[in-house]
Design a protein that fits this description.
Blueprint: H1 3-11, E1 18-23, E2 28-32, H2 33-49, E3 57-61, H3 66-78, E4 81-84, H4 91-101, E5 105-108, E6 122-124, H5 125-133, E7 149-155, E8 163-168, H6 169-182, E9 190-193, H7 201-213, E10 216-219, H8 228-235, E11 239-242, H9 244-251, H10 258-267, E12 270-273, H11 280-290, E13 295-300, E14 304-308, E15 328-332, E16 345-350, E17 357-358, H12 362-368, E18 369-370, E19 373-382, E20 388-393, E21 398-400, E22 403-405, H13 407-414, E23 420-430, E24 434-443, H14 449-459, E25 469-471
Parallel strand pairs: 1-10, 3-4, 3-5, 5-6, 9-10, 9-11, 11-12, 12-13, 24-25
Antiparallel strand pairs: 1-2, 7-8, 8-17, 13-14, 15-16, 16-19, 18-19, 19-20, 21-22, 23-24
Bound molecules: malonyl-coenzyme A.
Length: 497
């Protein structure tokens, strides 16, 4: 199904209802679904006039703001494939995505000062918004079937090169219809959108569930521990999607008093956590302070949501629950044997939300599947009650604050420095962000670690910059030359950093 048909349940069917509150920099504004519909129609007209049509790609490098939503709705209408890019990415990271997806243009806030590869057509979001506002509202809806690509989401891989997971209209529709049903999301909800819209958590789950259910959404540019608690007290959300770092921050008594936590908890209906493991102690502390059992679920960019603890029924700490409706899962051992309960192996899935493949990468797509089952790369175990628990990754993925980091990408950058002979990046556990990256390097004495840190800062998203660069004489290796990460000297985070 064309996603527009689902969005119209609210954009047309609930036209006069309050849809969205957002801060335009001067004040908090409120839009109805009809107003949102008109904005999307005008933006679609503007994009079409700039030559965009079905199958073209449009890359968007924006923080959360109203134009992000206008652009997403407009692209869906025109059949233009939306390519969201992490706002924290620097030129090196952007160059690869732009080179791979070959978008007709990148929409960005030009005053943000990001640099894009030469030859990239960059449209300033403010200028684009002003141009769209002068157009007539026309409902231009390109005919397409549900298997048409709606979005390409870039996720790094063990190779260090980001691959674009192609998600169809059907993938996104099936995912959101499932979530609205199993999490009982309705037009009575008040959803606080504070996660970045450029990832599937905020976009695939948040934005779509809002548009399909017709609930009210408060859009924040980001979660900020200094300001978000105030918004929570004013807006009184019933529905909150967060990553574990958000819940750890909210538990900090310097961020929120016990009374405020209770007030927010009393108004809320459901707190969901995903994108990284939620520590059991956070689960328990949150229940004590907010009076809610966080519902933990499991998903990934390629598959959208995969498993979820139940809305009704036991939400187990340390578990991601059973597979969602329509999702089949199996646990596979090293020799490709399907394992029984209580045995740890790779989680493999089939699902109506599963992507069709990586953009322009038949080789990587073939590697990602086993006889039609998607190899998630996550290790997991199923208990006899049908609940799954995750037990780490097959690969080296580090998750920091809910953002994925592939060590190989950082190692490749480090090794571009001729004074550096060897480098390995590992994830070190961190009480707030879950994990942080730390680099171990074998380098000439002439190399200054502050210079190498500076080089990382200028070329990598901030969450990928190693928190420490530790010099070692050599990297511990097996007889076959494989680095033994567990034998590296431990790193202690300095106090107050
Ligand atoms: C983080 N930073 C941002 C930012 N988020 N900057 C601009 N916009 C944003 N949205 C940067 C800060 O500048 C800072 O950089 C560093 O990140 C840490 O920020 P902080 O202020 O200390 O924030 P903190 O309280 O730690 O919270 C971070 C966070 C952020 C929780 C707000 O990590 C976040 O939004 N994470 C969500 C990630 C997400 O949505 N993942 C979903 C992936 S989809 P510096 O330079 O000071 O270090 C997926 C599938 C699935 O995984 O299952 O969902």
């Amino acid at each position: 199904m064309h996603l527009t048909g689902l969005f119209d349940l609210s954009l047309v069917g609930r036209a006069n209802r309050e849809a969205l509150q957002y801060d335009d920099g001067a004040s908090v504004r409120t839009l109805t679904f009809a107003a949102l519909d008109a904005r999307a129609g005008r933006m679609a007209g503007e994009l079409a006039s700039r030559g965009l049509s079905r199958g073209d790609r449009l890359a968007v490098h924006l923080p959360n703001r109203i134009e992000f939503i206008d652009l997403y709705l407009a692209c869906a209408r025109l059949g233009v494939i939306f390519v969201p890019m992490n706002i924290l990415y620097k030129e090196r990271e952007l160059r690869h995505i732009v080179g791979d997806a070959e978008p007709k243009a990148v929409v960005a806030a030009v005053q943000n000062g990001a640099t894009y590869p030469e030859s990239t057509v960059v449209w300033d979001v403010d200028e684009l918004g002003r141009a769209a506002a002068t157009r007539e509202h026309a409902r231009m809806i390109a005919p397409l079937d549900g298997d048409a690509p709606a979005m390409i989401v870039y996720t790094s891989g063990t190779t260090g090169v980001a691959k674009g997971a192609v998600l169809s209209h059907n993938n996104l529709a099936a995912n959101a219809i499932t979530l609205t049903t199993v999490w009982k999301i309705s037009e009575n909800d008040r959803y606080l959108a504070m996660l970045p819209l450029f990832h599937v958590h905020g976009l695939g789950n948040g934005l779509h569930s809002w548009l399909i259910s017709g609930c009210r959404m408060r859009l924040l540019d980001r979660f900020d521990q200094r300001t978000t608690p105030r918004v929570m007290l004013d807006f009184k959300p019933t529905l909150i999607f967060g990553v574990p770092t958000v819940y750890v921050r909210l538990l900090d008594t310097a961020v929120m008093s016990d009374d405020d936590a209770r007030t927010i908890g009393d108004a809320a209906r459901l707190f969901v956590s995903g994108s990284a493991p939620l520590p059991a102690h956070v689960h328990e502390a949150f229940h004590r302070r907010f009076g809610h059992t966080i519902l933990e679920r499991y998903g990934m960019s390629e598959a959208l949501m995969i498993m979820s603890n139940p809305y009704e029924g036991e939400r187990q700490a340390g578990s991601v629950g059973p597979p969602l409706p329509g999702v089949s899962a199996r646990i596979v051992g090293d020799e490709g044997v399907v394992l029984g309960d209580d045995q740890v192996g790779e989680v493999q899935i089939c699902s109506p939300h599963l992507f069709s493949g990586y953009w322009g990468r038949p080789d990587a797509t073939a590697d990602a599947f086993d006889d039609g089952w998607f190899k998630t790369g996550d290790l997991g175990v199923r208990a006899s009650d049908g609940y799954y628990a995750l037990r780490g990754r097959r690969g080296d993925l580090i998750i920091s604050g809910g953002f994925n980091i592939y060590p190989r990408e950082i190692e490749e950058l480090l090794l571009e420095n001729p004074l550096l002979r060897e480098a390995v990046v590992v994830g070190v556990s961190d009480p707030v962000r879950g994990e942080v990256p730390v680099a171990y390097i074998v380098a000439d004495d002439a190399l200054s670690t502050s210079a190498i840190e500076q080089s990382c800062r200028s070329q990598l998203a901030s969450f990928k910059v190693p928190r420490a660069f530790i010099r070692v004489e050599s990297l511990p290796r097996t007889a076959l030359g494989k680095i033994q990460k567990h034998l590296l000297p431990p790193w202690q985070k300095p106090v107050n950093s």
